[in-house]
Amino acid sequence: MAVATSSSQVLNNVEAVRATLYEALKNDDKVLILGEDVGNRGNVFLITKDFVKEFGTERIIDTPIAEASIVGIAVGMAMEGLRPIAEIQFADFIYPSFNQIVGEAAKTRYRSNGEYTCPMVIRTPYGGGVRGALSHSVSVEALFYHVPGLKIVVPSFPADVKGLLNAAIDDPDPVLFLEHKKTYRLIKGEVPDGHYVIPIGKADVKKEGSQLTVVSYGLYVHWALEAANQLESEGMSVEVIDLRSVRPMDRTAILQSVRKTRKLLIIHEDNKFGGIGAEISAMVAEEALFDLDAPIRRLAAPDVPAMGYAMPLEEAYMSSPAKMADAMREMVKF
Known about the structure:
This protein is of the alpha/beta class.
């Protein structure tokens, strides 16, 4: 269990989001938050509770249910020198703002030849495991992963939440910040005080090992660690890498680990076809194929439109520590 020190505190993931947003608002008048129910209601997870009382309605802005407007207005604010944090209430609702994210925010620097930047963050909770069913369980990273000019960050631990959210707010270009809602209150950890920053694009080796590299992000990092610890008790050594940022991706960290263990398993919650794992597989195949002792394997969601509400359907769609442990054993023993 994490223990707070004189320069840190123990928070869960949702508390880390709230604390980081509060500090950003307090320290920089250019930072503001806009989205559905972020004002008087304080967000559906109470992340911005009472913020409007302290910072006012000009900086904590309740918007209509219009995601295209939320992001589009944030783009304009960012181009005029503000640092908006646009909240999409759930990732499942992000689709109406696709053009504003892809066609406007991500292209601002390029189309203006560097005259304008777009320093904005788009925060949204994603992922399953909470019986959210069709409209509250989606993973959206692969839909935006193809887009140059857009950074995508997916923290797993509270300290990473703070460090990466601060980096996203400071960044001169748009950042899509994905928060797995099952980790909100489930995961706790020590979080440094002050303006703590983790560079975007740097992965973290959460567990060192020698026989297999596992690459993951979000909730699945925690389950992968649980599975890896189980295998350790069985005499097998698995290295677990938390990407933290899926774009830009820490290619160096992945390749160094794969060249050491000579085997690679990629685990993610999103659909297998066309997912982040496909890009990692291609990159490793291009640059480290002859360092491998086994085929690359991906453990991901089936190619169906969404996870169901019924518990058996959700469990069938998602992975689990047990499924991950089985896949790891097969890879180590290959």
